[in-house]
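Quick check before the chapter quiz. The format below is the same one you will see on the exam, so make sure you can read both the input and the output lines.
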Amino acid sequence: GLALWLAIGADRERAQRVAGGSDDAAPPFLKITSAPGAEFAPSLSPDGSQVVYSAYVDVDGKGRTQLMLQTTAPVEPRALTHPVAGEQDLMSAWSPDGRQIAFYRVRREAGVRRESGAGSSCHLMLMASAGGEPHPVATCESDRLRMFGWHPDGTQLVFGASNAGQPGVNAIEVLDLAAGTSRKLDYAHAASDLDLAPKYSPDGRWIAFQRNVSRGDLWLVAAGGGQPERATRIVSNPHG
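Here is the expected output.
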């Protein structure tokens, strides 16, 4: 009887917290885009006031994917980039100070299979978040885009493997934006390990990443390299 009484009291208390808008309540969602096409891969500015995302547009039968920018409210967006027909601007990410946006620009020739990579080009681009002309900082492979994250000081980007995996580049790499040169992180990993989606900690001391897909987990390694530490044991495919 005592156990039943405690359980009923706990349920009532939980219901009151939810009704009062506590942390247990489901977060509200606000629809901020309503264009007829596809919008995807959003990235919030560091202060949370703006969002940049990719949107597919079709002009006279010539498709392209451009970056759109708007406040985090249901208002009209503005085009941040102006790619030509056949180009795709993808996987945008704000710099920590909010002044720059990095993204991939991929161009594929008409009729070329996506996975072939033939007749295509790919560049990692950098541009001012206020607008202007983007400029390339590194080349990439159009069929193996690699998720990346900014260093807190804004001078470097950290890259993981692509989801498809690729011999020789399944490990974490760091790109120096000023020099345009990359180096492999000196850390322990097996040739079979697929290390994805690395992100720096806010103080820049650690890198978190996903190791392997389907049966993957989150890992931590010091920003300078060394022995990684396993942070989870979910043996799944985490996202985000």
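If your answer matched, good. Helices lie at 2-19.
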